[in-house]
Amino acid sequence: MTFLENAKNAAAAAAVKDCVTKNVRIIGIGSGSTVVYVVKNLAIKVKEENLDLVFIPSSFQSQQVLLESGLKLSTLTETPILDIVFDGADEIDCHLDCIKGGGGCLTLEKINASCSKKLVIIADHSKLSSVLGEKWKKGIPLEIIPVAYIPILAKLKELGGKPELRMAVAKAGPVVTDNGNFIVDVDFGLIHNPQALNQKLINIPGVVETGLFLGMAKKAYIGLIDGTGPIRPVAPKQEVIEDCVEGLKKKVLGLPIEGSTKASQEQRNPPLSILRASFEGFKALLR
Fold it and tell me: Considering all CA atoms of the chain, what is the largest pairwise distance in Å, rounded to the nearest integer?
């Protein structure tokens, strides 16, 4: 096993150990190479602890991996509320926003994630970036209605993107998703405002779903370069905002810390470095 594969396995093992608790029974499974390691570790845990878990796949691939591992399958029709979803990512930034869909399964992956109480992303270190578009250079995947692909390509160019219809490797013609649709990959370079871009993309008639997974992940496990892991990136934006607010209350407004009745001199007159760090933190959230 290579360092990269070891990293994926280490991250998957840690995620399964930490997140599959006694309150978790219905688990969604994403798609991609990392999911294989997630399912392997889940199968071991189910067998060793004699757990009664059910799994909802997001693609033909993940369904086959689950079946081969002897795990119990369900559907969103039978179990519409999931306790947790494990999935990979093509790229993940420091706020846990992701680009997904390199495997063409973005729509069902996003549906599963939206039905879950918690989305956990598992990836190797090569997928972690400071801003979306920094590492993943193939563009944002879009699942689209086939008859609309020509006008959609034109509208994407008007938005400043460089779209390409994804072509199949082992068949003639374009990639066809599990839902019978096409995939367009559109390059916008570095994405400093993914929320605004996502809204513009999803508003194009004929676009079924985008590969931007924003504000959905609650936790991420990232395998390290030497094959060990995991590490967790910075918390999602809301948690960062709350930390910044609390920090400003304590350091700038001079409020008591942890129940103390009197603010310290440092709180009332915060060092310049603290003020600068707080300001830079808020600027980063607004990018």
Answer: 73
